[in-house]
Design brief:
It is found in: Membrane. This is Putative sodium-coupled neutral amino acid transporter 7. Residues 21-30 have a biased composition (Pro residues). It is a multi-pass membrane protein. This protein is mainly alpha-helical. It has one domain (35-461): Up-down Bundle (Amino acid/polyamine transporter I), CATH 1.20.1740. It is built from 15 helices and no strands. It has helices spanning 35-46, 50-61, 64-92, 97-144, 156-167, 181-204, 226-233, 236-244, 251-280, 297-333, 337-342, 344-365, 370-399, 406-440, 448-461. Helix 4 (97-144) packs across helix 12 (344-365) and helix 6 runs parallel beside helix 9 (251-280). The termini are far apart.
Amino acid sequence: MPCDVTSAPLLERSDDEPEPPARPATPPPAAGTSWPAAVFLIVNAALGAGLLNFPQAYDQAGGLAVALSVQATLLVFIVAALLVLAVCSDHAGAATYQDAVHGLLGAPGLWACSAAIALYCYGTCVTFLIVIRDQSDVVFSSLAGPQFCKTWYMSHLFTMPVTVALFVLPLCFSKRIDFLKWASAVGVAAIFYLDGLITVKYFTGGFEPGPIKHRPDTWTDVFLVMPTICFGYQCHVSVVPIYSCLRVRTPTTFLRSALTAIAVCVATYTVAGTFGYLTFGGRVTSDVLMSYNARDPWVMAGIVAIAVKTYTTYPILLFCGREAVVRLWVAGRGLDESAAATGELPRRCVVATLWLVSSVLLALVTPSIGAVIQLLGSLAALFIFVFPGLCLLRLVLEKDPELLLRKDRWLTAFAVALTSVGAFVFGLVLTQALEEDIEHLGPPITDLCVVNRVTSQLMMHG
C-alpha cells in the first residue's frame, strides 16, 4: 500500500464492533504530502483526455445551458462522495480505494471494486495513449503532408511506443503515489495553457462555427453529457491513496485539498467546453484539438502541452490499476502478510510492464477516444456514486443500527440517493454507449493515416 494509514479516527470503534480485515503493514512515510501538493495530485488525476471531449459533449446534450446545469447537479454528489471516501478510509484504516471498500463491504466488495478499478484505469490509460497517437499524427500531417505515415519515423507505430518508453515507463514503478507530485504540477500547468489557447482562439481565430444548439433534440439527449462529466471528474480512485499520503491526515485538510482541486477542474472544463463549443459549434470533433490547424505555433504548443499532461497522468492511473490487480492477485492466492511482502517488488514491476505494453498495443488499433470515454463514463459512475453510497450506508448502520439519531437517518437517505443516482447513471450511460456504437457501427475514425488512405481511395474511384 502506498502510505501510512494512521490518523485520528473519525469514529471510535466499540469493543463489540468487528475489526476490519487485516492488510499488509506499511512503514510510516518519512514525510507526507502538503495539502497544496495534494491539490496538484487530485487535479492531475481528474484533468486529462476528457477535457478534449467536453465541447462535443456540450453539443450532444443540447447546448451550454443544458450541459452546465447537468454538470452543476452532478457536482453536488461528486464533492460529497469525496468526503465520504475520506471518512470511510479512516474508518477502515485503508490507503487505497479498494481497501476502503473491503473494510466496509467485505470480500465481495473487494473483488467487485478491484475488478472495476483495474478495468477503468486500464481503459483510461488506453485513452491517454490514443490522445498521444492522435496529436502526433496531427503534428506530422501538418508538417510533412498527408503522406507522413509512409515515413517510418513519423508513423505513430514508431513514435508512440518510443515516447512512452522514454517519458512514461520510468514513472510507472513507484511504490508511493506522491512520488508523482512534481510531474503533476507540470501536467496541471500544461492544461492551463490549453485552456488559454482555446479561449484565445475563440476570440482571435476567425472560425466559422457550425449550428449552436440551445435545447436538446430529444429530452434524452440531456444525459449524453453524463459520461464525459463522470469521466472528467473521476478522481475518486486516486484520492484515497493521496489522502493516505497527507502530512496532516484529517478530513478538514483533505476537504480543503479536494474543494480546491474540484474548483480548478470546474473552471478548466467549463472554459474549455464553452469556448471550444462556441468556436466550432456542431462541427466540433470528439478531440477538439484536431479541429485546429497544427501549423499554427500556438496550436502546436497546445498539442505538446496535452502530450505532457498525458505523460504525467498515465502513471497515476497505472498506479491505481496496478494496486487493484495486485490486491486481486494476493487475495486470490490467499497470501498472508509476509508472503505478500516477499514478492512485492518483482510483482509490482511485472504488472506495471505488462500493463504498459498491452495498453500501447491496444491504443494503436483503437479508432478514437469518443466511444471509449462513453464506456469509461459508466464505470466512473460506480466509483463516484455507487461504492461511496454503499460504504456510507454500511458505516451508518454499523454505528447506529436502529437509526435512532436524526443525523444518521439523513445520512442513510443520502447514501441511498447517492447509490441510486450512480446505478441510474451507470445503466443509462452504458446503454447509450452501446446503442451509439451499434447505430454507427463503431466510433468515428481519428487515425489520420486511415483517414488519408480512405480519402485517397475514394478520390481514385470517384
